[in-house]
Amino acid sequence: MKTINNFIKIIIFLVVLNGGILLITYVLTPKIPSFYREKHYDAVFFGTSQSYCSFDPLIFDEYHLKTYNRGRQQQTMNYTYYYIKDALDVCDIDVVVLETFGMCYEEDDTGFISEGVRDSSLNDMRMSETKIEAIRECVPEEMQISYFFPLDKYHSRWEELDYASWNGFYNSALKPYYEEADRGYKRWTESEVCVDDYWSIAFSEIRRDVYAGNIKYLDKIYELCQKKGAKLILVKAPLPCYDRVIEEMNTVSDWAEEHDIELINYMRLQDVLELNFYTDSLDGGTHLNESGAGKVSKHLAAYLKENYFE
């Protein structure tokens, strides 16, 4: 009988210990965005910072389109694939809009190994089979444990918690979602003049090889959208627009034509957008500011409304 009692005590101890570890892990792990609260979107935007600087959900609201921007800084195509997979697992999305600048990253680009890219892509992804798959596929093996069990990685979050009241503690530690400003869009009003006439070179027909790993994940995104019944649309923001990007986008355009996928290349529509190189760029030709993003968003919203939601 004593042996049985000791065994039961050990079991209870292990259950309490594991429960405590899980609770502490939950408290310390960063919250996930309010994106996950919804079960349906008309369109969701994915890609690099070119996505979160170009597509403003507030403007799509004016066209009665329910949208969210899931773009993340320097996000490489492998992470983007898992972001889209995760989104399609959790909700019904009519149109997946993929901003294609991530196709321009080279095999040796630091984005594939950058801790900042990993964290911005994984921190606010819900824990699921898809996230586990993403960690195993994208994170170096010796670093994976800190993403599966992030107690050490996020131990400093104790300092961010509000212990003054139950509501404060709930909102800072136990509430699962946080409200992402502007549904993921980054609203910057600063401007810096573009010194080059980008539009004049945007019509080059020269092709340049695209890193095969990027094509691999673009294929996977295409197959995933086919399986989930989501329409895939590729969009290239008007910036950045220089030789290598133009030439690689021509190659991506060939891929899109082969797969009967639409690619809206705003590098070639800068006149249609009436883009102003004095007022519409955040940083001299790399990203759009609020003024430039407003022009892209209005054009794309009208186009989606007319062609996909009428």
Short recap of the structure:
By secondary structure, the chain is an alpha/beta fold.
List the helices and strands and how they pair.
Elements: H1 2-28, E1 32-33, E2 40-46, H2 49-52, H3 57-62, E3 67-69, H4 77-90, E4 92-99, H5 115-122, H6 129-138, H7 145-148, H8 166-174, E5 177-178, H9 212-228, E6 231-236, H10 243-258, E7 262-265, H11 270-273, H12 290-308
Parallel strand pairs: 1-5, 2-3, 2-4, 4-6, 6-7
Description:
This protein has a single domain, classed as 3-Layer(aba) Sandwich (Rossmann fold). The chain has twelve helices and seven strands. Helix 4 (77-90) runs antiparallel to helix 6 and helix 4 (77-90) packs parallel to helix 9. Mean pLDDT is 87; it is low at 19-24. The strands form two sheets. The protein has a five-stranded parallel beta sheet. It is globular. The chain is of the alpha/beta class and 310 residues long. Strand 6, helix 10 and strand 7 form a beta-alpha-beta unit. The chain crosses the membrane at residues 7-28. It comes from Roseburia inulinivorans. Keywords: Membrane, Transmembrane, Transmembrane helix. This is SGNH/GDSL hydrolase family protein.
Q: What is the number of E strands?
A: 7
Share in β-strands: 5-15%
Q: Residue share in helices?
A: 40-55%
CATH topology: Rossmann fold
Give the overall shape, derived from the CA principal axes. Answer: globular
User: How large, in whole angstroms, is the Cα Rg?
Assistant: 22 Å
Q: Provide mean pLDDT, rounded.
A: 87
Q: Largest sheet at a glance?
A: 5 strands, parallel
CATH architecture: 3-Layer(aba) Sandwich
The side-by-side strand order for the widest beta sheet comes to 3-2-4-6-7
CATH class: Alpha Beta
Unreliable spans are 19-24
Number of helices: 12
CATH homologous superfamily name? SGNH hydrolase
Protein name: SGNH/GDSL hydrolase family protein
InterPro entries: SGNH_hydro_sf
Transmembrane segments: 7-28
Keywords: Membrane, Transmembrane, Transmembrane helix
